[in-house]
Amino acid sequence: xxxxxxxxxxxxxxxxxxxxxxxxxxxxxxxxxxxxxxxxxxxxxxxxxxxxxxxxxxxxxxxxxxxxxxxxxxxxxxxxxxxxxxxxxxxxxxxxxxxxxxxxxxxxxxxxxxxxxxxxxxxxxxxxxxxxxxxxxxxxxxxxxxxxxxxxxxxxxxxxxxxxxxxxxxxxxxxxxxxxxxxxxxxxxxxxxxxxxxxxxxxxxxxxxxxxxxxxxxxxxxxxxxxxxxxxxxxxxxxxxxxxxxxxxxxxxxxxxxxxxxxxxxxxxxxxxxxxxxxxxxxxxxxxxxxxxxxxxxxxxxxxxxxxxxxxxxxxxxxxxxxxxxxxxxxxxxxxxxxxxxxxxxxxxxxxxxxxxxxxxxxxxxxxxxxxxxxxxxxxxxxxxxxxxxxxxxx
Length: 395
Fold this sequence. Notes:
Number of helices: 13
Low-confidence stretches: none
Structural class: alpha+beta
Shape: globular
Distance between the termini: 33 Å
Mean pLDDT: 89
Helix content: 25-40%
Largest sheet: 8 strands, antiparallel
Number of strands: 18
């Protein structure tokens, strides 16, 4: 699945902002405080709202003040989030919109709509329409009907007005549109990798996917080695090409039931434990584990991947992110590195600036001067350093 547009209204720094025609690899730059992390927090917010409820999601994001803290300062009206996405390139464009208000100090879902067009003309077909805990949802497969009048709708009432309707309906095969959106949100991954969390040995266990902070890296390594040897070998091949000296990686379970992550340097007979290996080596290995997951996430969000990595590796990391997107996933990356940005394409870069206290999203390809310089062979990072991204100063 691929997100094609994001519209935010009254969501923290975004009073009214939109990203259209979002590419498979989407790279964000901007000065500190312009909203790069906030944009990523939208994905985390929706995931928390789906697994818990909107009240919990607002509290996690805005603390005890919840709705009031998440809503843009000095604004009135509800918080609005709209996503447009496709299940595959040939599928219709699906629109999901969520409007959140507050009543008596508690958040309520003012409106939740899921709809899509069958063609380029005509009114969208609405498959889910709920307000304050009550509404209707389509139960039959949209591909089996030729006219909107053939859609079969059921009325439902949720047990609370702060629960997403798509949360409950996504569990049932008879609500296909809701199920598709639920799977998208449930399976996207927001990476906040901490190298020091990945170094220590772990209690023996089972993990198929790298966690948000990466503390289960040794368990995932063991899983890939035993269950997906071909994938594991490809990761090692990539790693040895990028990190000179590294020959192999493995995970060893001790008699005490601890799993150790070990790196083999070709110059030495005995492997090194992860706590003795460089930050850059561990981070590159972790990113390769994430990017070559046998069951890839539909969407990855990665903040400042350049930290602890040698500048020469950044171009290859961009290529890995782009390859992941070309295989069907989607990657959002924020960066402060001109070296990372130099490996990006004109269509992939957005920059964020503050105007009158709120964040505005601009696109490199829509800036005539940036586009002209890129057409002449310049690189994005150099243009950024020279000040051609107005208001988005490199750090």
